[in-house]
Amino acid sequence: MQTFDPIDGALLVDKPSGPTSHDVVDLIRRQFRIKKVGHCGTLDPAATGLLIIVLGRGTKLSERLMADDKVYEGTMKLGESTSSHDAQGDLTGSLPVPPLSLDELNELAGTFVGDQMQLPPMVSAIKKDGVPLYKLARKGVEVERKERLIHIYNFRFSAYEEPLATFRVACTKGTYVRTLVHDLGQKLGCGAHLATLRRTVSGRFDVADALPLARILELSPTELQQRIMPMLKLVGAGPS
Length: 240
Prior knowledge:
Blueprint: E1 9-15, H1 21-32, E2 37-39, E3 48-55, H2 62-66, E4 70-78, E5 80-82, E6 91-94, H3 102-110, E7 114-118, E8 127-128, E9 131-132, H4 133-138, E10 148-161, E11 164-171, H5 177-188, E12 192-202, E13 205-206, E14 211-212, H6 213-216, H7 221-227, E15 229-230, H8 231-235
């Protein structure tokens, strides 16, 4: 029977706003001197929430865990469009926001539910000839991108006070929530961008079970091992 090292598995991290997903991987690798560390699904630097970190032989399961569906909560700002579809991009348009009710927002959000083709933004980690698109975007270069098939299971707004609207979306992997928000803004005719985003669920894992990154970096090696979900549990963590 195959045996595993205590660090072979996954760690649930509540990522703060600021660091990239790769930064989180590097911090954990250096702090605990673990050779193999990876993550399952990139979060933009400004985004917060659940980041699944895989350790040791757990890295072999990264593709499987990355394929799981996701749930996000966030806020969108109406009336302003940006180059990256979020608050970190350059302003590309500003228009008056039409009178809107929460019900009208939800009626429009409902039109996005189901299968759809989505065009990834230029400011993304998708690579073109080995170069991430965001690096090309920084140079003012725009290249042709291929649309991707995504599925939106649920998209609902819970609050609206112009120009900010609070929402929750459940979707398949590879969905750009900021592009979803941008596209909704285009349909409204006033534009919109993603103001804040937090990932709350990935597959069967919930951010409620994660530790903040700062707390994880304070753990002793023994305490860290107690937080690691072992390989055998991860193997059974796929869709039922």
